[in-house]
Specification:
Blueprint (H helix, E strand, L loop, with lengths): L2 H13 L2 H8 L3 H15 L4 E2 L6 E2 L1 H26 L7 E6 L1 H6 L2 H10 L4 E6 L2 H9 L5 E5 L7 E15 L10 E2 L1 H4 L4 E4 L3 H10 L8 E5 L2 H9 L5 E4 L4 H5 L4 E5 L5 E9 L6 H21 L1
Parallel strand pairs: 3-4, 3-5, 7-11, 8-9
Antiparallel strand pairs: 1-2, 5-12, 6-10, 6-11, 6-12
Helix pairs in contact: 1-2, 1-3, 1-4, 2-3, 6-12
Amino acid sequence: MDFDQLITFLEVARQGSFSRAGEKVFRSQSAVSAQIRQLEQEYGDRLLDRSGKTVKLTPAGQIFYEYAEKLKNLRDESLMAVADHSGTPRGTLRVGANEATCLYVLPEVFGEYCRRYPPVQISIYRNFSYKIVEKLENGAVEIGILTLPIQSPSLKIQPIFRDKLMLMVSPKNPLAKYKVVPVSEIVKQPLLFPKTGHTRRLLDKLFRPYGTELQVRMELPSIGMIKSFVAADLGVSLISQSFARDEVDAGRVKLIDLEDADLYRELGLAYRRDRTLSVASTAFVGLLRQFATKMNKTDA
């Protein structure tokens, strides 16, 4: 067995498909199948059930999957330990964050990090916060930027950034002339909601007392779509202030404070309590804190 076969097996198990796994590991479907066959021959048992539309782990495969993850994590740790030997950031920085954080909070941080430490490769795991917690706990990522609150005894979690939620309207909307708007006026407007996530939960709670009055025109899957549709005056929405900074500067939308509600999206930095951060990760944490301090002052 070699690590290429191990990585391929893990990817097939996660994707439930030989072809999708092949795309992830940059191999043809036939090459993926050959690697899995070699593993099964070496272990003398079928590791994957190919009988249905989705490839699934067999009982033997479930056992092997746990060991495969441990072996991969040990390999990553050994690479990190050797990279840290020089005291200079090297190797791979493994970070988990949700899509909005990747798009609107982290680009400047990553840009500066790459300028300072060009030898470091950055691997980003993009998913919901609860999924990132799982990856942190099993060692697949070393640092997570999570939407708080999060509970996990095995993780050290430090708040780093508070982002105010504000009403976002088109400059053409009648509410655009106000600096502050009560919730009772917002419910009179067509609303554009995110389908899922932290902001959606806050909106559901905020507007619950106005249930029969609500006009939810659309439920949209991305912040980018919400911003574009608000700019086209299809409705109004609530959004984290930092997410709409470019649109505000360009005059495409306007952000307005809520008169009778203070809502925030708080981000936290998370990593395992029982592990020492690599040199590359320590450098990233320091840089992230610098940027977070600057952003908190800007939005204060």
